[in-house]
Amino acid sequence: xxxxxxxxxxxxxxxxxxxxxxxxxxxxxxxxxxxxxxxxxxxxxxxxxxxxxxxxxxxxxxxxxxxxxxxxxxxxxxxxxxxxxxxxxxxxxxxxxxxxxxxxxxxxxxxx
Length: 112
Fold this sequence. Notes:
By secondary structure, the chain is mainly α. 71% of the residues lie in helices and 0% in strands.
């Protein structure tokens, strides 16, 4: 896996922390993934949330994976494929363009 070098802006960080919040509210009670994937996503998602909230951009690969899962869930909520409460839907809709932009960045990262 290549090094994550995309320069995250303050707006990107807000979008990612919002996506993580939505993921942590949506994922635990879902059957979207096997339980071990859910557990890892939540564990590393919590770490990523803390890392980003302190403006530390030294993000581990596991945290990057959790961020990617969070963006995928947020995109699924926007498209109606992932069920979510109204607050989560609103958060995702308000960040639609940022979520899609970052999702593309993370997809490129994981393809290499």
